[in-house]
Amino acid sequence: MELLFLISISTPDSLKYPDSLNMRMVSRWKAPLPTFGIEVAGNSAYLSSMRRIFAIDFSDPLGLALSSEIKVDGFPIGLKLYRGRYLLAGSGYSGLTVVDVEDPYIAEVLASVPSRDSALSVDVKGRYAFVTDGEAGITVYDISSPSNPVVVGSFDTPGFARGIHIVGNRAYVADGPGGLLILDITNPRRIKMLGQYSLGDTTFAIDVRYYNGRAYVAFGQEGLYVFDVRNPSKIKPLIRFLAYGEALGFDLKGNLLFIAFGSGGIKAFDLRRIENEIKLGRKILKESEFARYRPPIYEGEVIYDLAVKGNLILAASRKGLVIYEYTY
User: Fold this and answer.
1) Which of 90, 93, 124, 314 has the greatest number of beta carbons closer than 10 A?
2) How far apart are CA 260 and CA 280, in angstroms?
3) For 13-326, which CATH class?
4) Where are the domains of the chain?
5) 153: closest CA among 189, 126, 115?
6) Model pTM score
């Protein structure tokens, strides 16, 4: 006798349809390759991809147009604008790339300086660019002459340096399995470790932002963690947010934190609300999210990074540039 079992496998309605709160998708520019990092200058959005950077004119958010396709060496990820006209890119094994984007239609690569391992993210203090360099930690470049960057210092971190945010004389580093690091960069040529907090070797810190004594760290599938960093030698975990998707990239506008949540779309938090939840003694965030957009699962959309301008959120995704509008 044959027994035939019919098993019905269905996708929950919460994943079939967009899940939105105070946010809507406005438009999309489909790229021929996945895009991973984003930076905004004026009405231009720059998206890093494989051996190229796309410049997109979004002066009309409903009529996105390609301004130029900038060919670069390596595999650019993190992008950072310098002096309003130079785009710095962490270009993997090709190191730091500098592009003159004063006119996005004729953007020109000025320099490409090798790094010690795999350049990923960039932040700037004065004339120095601090580049997360994977297994090699942090590499520091003097970029006072953008066409001729010079390596002037380095710091080997215990993990895999991935994200960085500089505030004053301190650098907050998402160090992969090394977790959160706080570095003293008063002298860029002699960086000192001030503190570290790791969740363990099986976790991976990807990006970080500092605001008012707190460090907000993206840990991929482990979600968002908030740390008290007022005393760098005694970093304390305070509260966490975990949801469908992977916390990958940030943008911070005043007291509003926007998170690229991978396949989970975009989440937006009011940091004042987070403080209220911390005061209530909570360990899991419940009420601080003020806006979100999670695309239907069948679209296969993955948001890697984002940048906020006004009430628009520009996101680098697996399929190209996506623009959202939020209200609050």
Assistant:
1) 90
2) 27
3) mainly beta
4) 13-326
5) 189
6) 0.94
